[in-house]
Amino acid sequence: MSRLCPKAAITMHHNALDQAICEALALLRTTAGPDLAVQAEQARKCLAQAVMADPDAPQQALVHIAAADDHLEYGELMEARTLLTAARGFLPGRRAVVAARA
């Protein structure tokens, strides 16, 4: 029976939060258009669900995600993207790849 070391368990645990940040970043690529508000709201919901599922994530990551949510509420996409990118840096382990632009 194999056991995960604590570091591996933490990395796997926060992988869903990292993936949610990547999904939010992909949603926020659009800089104009009628779907902008819809995409920002989808990103907010995605992040909120991930944070609720991972309350033990590093505090600095959660603070950055909360600040990004505030910026998304007001349509400030660049600020939100910057904060989400910084939040990823506080998560341990390997990072998911942000989807390429279509």
Radius of gyration: 14 Å
Principal-axes geometry comes out as globular
The number of domains: 1
**Biggest β-sheet: count, sense, barrel?**
none
Low-confidence region ranges: 1-12
CATH top level class name: Mainly Alpha
Q: So, CATH architecture?
A: Up-down Bundle
Specify the number of helices.
Answer: 4
Percent strand: under 5%
CATH topology group: Four Helix Bundle (Hemerythrin (Met), subunit A)
Range of helix content: 55-70%
The average pLDDT value, as a whole number, equals 82
> How do the helices and strands follow one another from N- to C-terminus?
HHHH
| Secondary structure category | mainly alpha
Give the total of beta strands. 0
Termini separation comes to 43 Å
Question: Can you put this structure into words, describing what you see?
Answer:
The chain is mostly helical and 102 residues long. The protein has one domain: Four Helix Bundle (Hemerythrin (Met), subunit A) (Up-down Bundle), CATH 1.20.120. Helix content is 67%, strand content 0%. The chain has 4 helices and no strands. Helix 2 packs antiparallel against helix 3 and helix 3 runs antiparallel to helix 4. The radius of gyration is 14 Å and the shape is globular. The N and C termini lie far apart (43 Å). The N terminus is likely disordered.
